[in-house]
Specification:
single chain, about 210 residues, alpha/beta, Rossmann fold, two-stranded antiparallel sheet, 9 strands, about 40% helix, globular, binds S-adenosylmethionine
Length: about 210
């Protein structure tokens, strides 16, 4: 188990994760209309929230882990003071134009249908959900027995649990796309094709219909 601070330091020093985060933030900021409100779902220690707030987006954050939330409150202290970052006690209580879920937050859920149903009550029509999820096809994990043991599950159901105590799951994009209907349609998947095997994270952009 890591504390919020350990997670925070790791994420800010890992070059690979920083590259992924920069790409995610750029996509979110390019898509957000000026001044639009955003909900960072599973906001962790507030690394993205601080950036969105600095770009003029009022940022609601929902984070269930107390350790993460405590660090977020410290890291985003000034933004919280001026109501640019607002901590929510429940995820679906504010209407926003966009919801972001960076770094595998949605991998913590087994049932995406009810999750996206909840998102549909938060995200305005025309708004979007942007999520980064672990690619289930990532060949970097092929050295692990659990990855090979789950190949048939991946081909069949498009879904398998990750090993250990992480309680996370990996999903083929099609499984998430199906669960997001009828409230959201997939607008962009990056990478596509063989890129899903060479990159650990995939970005899924859904538009609220
Ligand atoms: C790898 S961290 C990513 C944190 C943050 N989004 C970031 O970019 O650094 C995954 C986060 O998902 C959160 N999480 C786990 N279960 C969740 C749930 N049911 N609802 C919302 N967030 C959840 C965890 O507490 C954790 O902060």
């Amino acid at each position: 188990m890591h504390t919020g601070e350990q997670y925070h330091e790791f994420m800010l020093t890992s070059q690979r994760d920083r590259r992924v985060r920069d790409g995610f933030q750029k996509m979110a900021l390019d898509l957000l209309p000026a001044g639009a409100d955003v909900l960072d779902f599973g906001a962790g220690t507030g690394i993205d929230a601080k950036v969105y707030a600095a770009r003029g987006h009022r940022t609601f954050v929902y984070e269930p882990s107390e350790a993460m939330r405590a660090h977020l409150a410290q890291y985003c202290h000034d933004e919280i003071e001026r109501n640019a970052v607002i901590i929510l006690s429940r995820p679906v209580i504010r209407k926003v134009q966009a919801l972001t879920a960076n770094f595998a937050v949605l991998n913590h859920f087994e049932d995406h249908a009810s999750l996206f149903e909840g998102f549909s009550r938060v995200v305005d029509p025309g708004g979007f959900v942007l999520a980064s999820m672990l690619s289930p096809f990532y060949l970097g994990d092929a050295r692990h027995g659990w990855w090979r043991a789950n190949l048939m599950n991946l081909v069949g159901s498009g879904h398998y649990p990750s090993p250990g105590e992480s309680h996370i799951h990996r999903f083929a994009p099609r499984v998430v796309v199906r669960a997001a209907k009828p409230h959201f349609r997939l607008e962009r998947l990056a990478p596509r094709g063989f890129g899903l095997a060479t990159q650990l994270y995939m970005f899924l952009l859904f538009r609220r219909v």
